[in-house]
Amino acid sequence: MPPIVLLVDDDPNLLSSLHRSLRKEPYDIRCATSAEEAIRILEERPVDVVVSDQDMPGIKGTELLALIHQRYPDTIRFMLTGKATLEVAVQAINEGAISRFFVKPCNVVDLALTIQQALQHRDLTILARRLLRRVQNQSAILRKIEHENPALLQVNRDAQGAILLEDPPEDFEAFMKKIHETLA
């Protein structure tokens, strides 16, 4: 399933233009003309990236991005505004934890490239977390094996260099098979 990118702006012409410009990108594009509509879309299904305007009737973009950050922290958030001020940028960064701030009119190629890079970064972060959990699990298993078999870490060698086990398990083959299965 391709990643979902949600564009939020109260200007339907801008949404249409962005949608057309990004249509060849490898993601599913959704559009919302208000923060309330964007929230409904987010409640229905996971969204990978949200690109939100600031000045919309009702809920402002910074408020929407802060809400998304709170409820959906893994969703990548970008601000796209025609009225860029330092106050809006600081609020978007501090409260919405945005990844990028774009000023209208933005370069659509830059937007598309930034979305792709953010998705790749998120995927690598997810993979890194998964690998870390696996390493932690394997370390716990090894600690357990070491605790249950303290002689396992003592390496004694004979004159030819072969490893000698002082207290080998009764069924060494079964023991090695158990270790292999545990670590797999």
Care to describe what's here?
This protein has six helices and seven strands. The chain is of the alpha/beta class and 184 residues long. The protein folds into two domains: 124 residues, Response regulator (Rossmann fold, 3-Layer(aba) Sandwich); 35 residues, no CATH class. The protein has a five-stranded parallel β-sheet with strand order 2-1-3-4-5, with helices on both faces. The longest helix is centred in the last third of the chain and has 41 residues. It is elongated. The two termini are 29 Å apart.
Give the tags.
single chain; 184 residues; alpha/beta; Rossmann fold; 2 domains; five-stranded parallel β-sheet; two-stranded antiparallel sheet; 6 helices; 52% helix
Task: Please give a quick description of this structure.
With 184 residues, this protein is an alpha/beta fold. It has helices spanning 12-22, 35-44, 61-71, 86-96, 108-148, 172-183; strands at 4-8, 28-32, 49-52, 76-81, 100-103, 156-157, 163-164. The strands form two sheets. It has a five-stranded parallel sheet with strand order 2-1-3-4-5, sandwiched between helices. The chain has a two-stranded antiparallel ribbon with strand order 6-7.
